[in-house]
């Protein structure tokens, strides 16, 4: 499920926006201050941020810079300020879109869908907990230290990261990775590779929190 962080201090807007997003099938988390938002970003994984410019403890431009630099999450500004200067500054800081309040609900949903679609096709860096994957350089780091994955382990991890929050069946995983090494991967081999991958990326492979098992259905990464 697509997870959206709403950073907005107006309680009435938060209420209406949360209802709208949830009605459209989005998982929604709310932060009402810059400080709260940064704490949440460190603890959870998001697909998009809706960000108000005027926050009680800082300007939205500041947190936008942090989000784009440290988390690489698409950002849509929500603001009553429609002046050209704010729009230009927002885009210079890396904002993906800009919607002035009061916004029309269907237009906002359309803009969210467009940004998510564009970001998915362009995304090359993935984060889950303390693990980062750079698909351009084909590197994997854990807590800042590079770790080695075999070609099939790396491909398996990418499959999970391209489908965050989705339960992937063993059959689906086998279809994705069977020929990466030029040979057939059977069900038992898949079990072995998931075990090896967990040993390399999890803090405790016996109690995995990155690649979790959904009993009777398969596996998933993220929420």
UniProtKB/TrEMBL annotation:
GO biological process: regulation of DNA-templated transcription
Coiled-coil residue spans: none
Domain of life: Bacteria
Intracellular or extracellular location(s): Cytoplasm
GO molecular function, one term: phosphorelay response regulator activity
Start-end of DNA-binding region: 123-223
Domain OmpR/PhoB-type residue range list: 123-223
Record keywords: DNA-binding, Phosphoprotein, Transcription, Transcription regulation, Two-component regulatory system
SUPFAM superfamilies: CheY-like
Protein known as: DNA-binding response regulator
Organism: Lysinibacillus alkalisoli
């Amino acid at each position: 499920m697509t997870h959206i962080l709403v950073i907005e201090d107006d309680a009435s807007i938060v209420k209406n926006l949360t209802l709208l997003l949830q009605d459209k099938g989005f998982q929604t988390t709310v932060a009402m201050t810059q400080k709260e938002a940064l704490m949440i970003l460190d603890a959870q994984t998001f697909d998009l941020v809706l960000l108000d410019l005027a926050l009680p403890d800082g300007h939205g431009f500041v947190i936008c810079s942090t989000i784009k630099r440290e988390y690489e999450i698409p950002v849509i500004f929500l603001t009553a300020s429609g002046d050209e200067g704010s729009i230009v500054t927002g885009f210079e800081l890396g904002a993906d879109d800009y919607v002035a309040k009061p916004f029309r609900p269907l237009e906002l949903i359309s803009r969210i869908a467009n940004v998510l679609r564009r970001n998915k096709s362009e995304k090359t860096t993935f984060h889950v907990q303390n693990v980062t994957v750079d698909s351009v350089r084909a590197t994997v780091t854990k807590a800042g230290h590079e770790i080695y994955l075999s070609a099939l382990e790396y491909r398996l991890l990418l499959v999970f990261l391209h489908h965050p929050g989705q339960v992937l069946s063993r059959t689906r995983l086998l279809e994705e990775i069977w020929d990466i090494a030029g040979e057939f991967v059977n069900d038992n081999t898949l079990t072995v590779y998931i075990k090896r991958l967990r040993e390399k990326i999890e803090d405790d492979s016996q109690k995995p929190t990155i690649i979790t098992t959904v009993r009777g259905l398969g596996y998933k990464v993220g929420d």
